[in-house]
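The protein record now logged underneath.
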Amino acid sequence: MQAFGRFLDVLDALRANCPWDKKQTNESLRPNTIEETYELCDAIIKNDVHDICKELGDVLLHICFYAKIAEEKEQFDVADVCDALTRKMITRHPHVYHPSQIDAENPKPLPYVPEEAQQSTGSGEAKVSTVSQVLENWEQIKLKEKDGNKSVLSGVPDALPSMIKAYRIQDKARNVGFDWEDKQDVWTKVREELDELETELRKEDKENSTKELGDFLFSVINAARLYKLNPDNALEMTNRKFIDRFNYIEAHSIKVGKPLKDMTLEEMDKLWNEAKKVLNN
């Protein structure tokens, strides 16, 4: 708490005295927030503990900066952000919190007391015992909250990258029972979508081919989800693997003084296979 307090004091000082910090608005900060979030994600996929810690700090700065701007406009402050989050986490975890478990120092009534909580023993035990049940309850509670989602899929941000959005859409639909009964059945759909894509490609119909490509990718993401694989992480691993191997080819071309554009595909393919062995990826 002391460390967080010192950080907020520094933010206050910068907002009051630094020309750059003084002029920032929600709109001007937004692009930087997106960049900082991606930098954190990059550190996480690299498993770089030092950078994860550093980038978490940068993201935290942005969160508190937005709260500071709102406080200046007398809209809300960082304490309101924490209070709202605390109330939300309590109401959405009825298998952990009994309705009577409200922080004595923050006696604001919970906006919604879920029925599931009535079946709690009050000791943190409840009928919910699996991750799947927790997620299903989470979605149902969100729909019942006064300021919660108006529909099952309304909580998926429009600005999410397409692959992550597809995964989240499918996951939310699953939480209300709209999913394959047997995960192996998804492969029939994947093959069906691939056949439809190939049909349109043979016709050289770009518009329909684009639509069918989207359907095919959506089905592959669905398959990944059913097998508990993260398609975004998987694709990023492949991206990095490709970059490493291609850089190996490029480094060789520079070493021998032969530009890539002058190399044959056979020469590059040989170096590609060599890179797989040398880089062990």
Remarks:
- Residues 107-114, 116-126 have pLDDT under 50 and may be disordered.
- The two ends are 44 Å apart (CA to CA).
- The chain is about 65% helix and 0% strand.
- The CA atoms of residues 110 and 244 lie 52 Å apart.
